[in-house]
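To: structure desk
From: M.T.
Subject: fold request, one chain
Message: Could you run this one when you get a chance? Sequence is below, nothing fancy, just the single chain.
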Amino acid sequence: EVQLVESGGGLVQPGGSVKLSCTTSGFILFRYRMYWVRQAPGKEVEWIGDIIPYGGTTRYKDSLKGRLTISRDNAKNMVYLQMDSLKPEDTAVYYCGRDDGGGWKTSNYRGQGTQVTVSS
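Reply: Done. Structure tokens follow.
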């Protein structure tokens, strides 16, 4: 059974950082591009970035470049999202997902999400 479990969210002060983890199981991680999306209250799901199976090449939403770092450890079946210089508008539920080849919108597998709240 494919499973994706996000963790690491919580309350963070503006300007702070958070590193989210995505624990994967039930499939061979190195075969897939993995992505992160988020959903803020009252807003649609927003793609924020992804990482290819090997080599570490990443893509990020233009408005978030410089503040996000996505990484992966295929041996540990883990994917990570580091976010820096957090702003209140980064408050959202963050999800990791597996890209099955058709992009994140057609993805069949996404975790349950972890809440990140940016507030003083």
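Reply (cont.): The chain has a mean pLDDT of 96. Let me know if you need anything else for the meeting.
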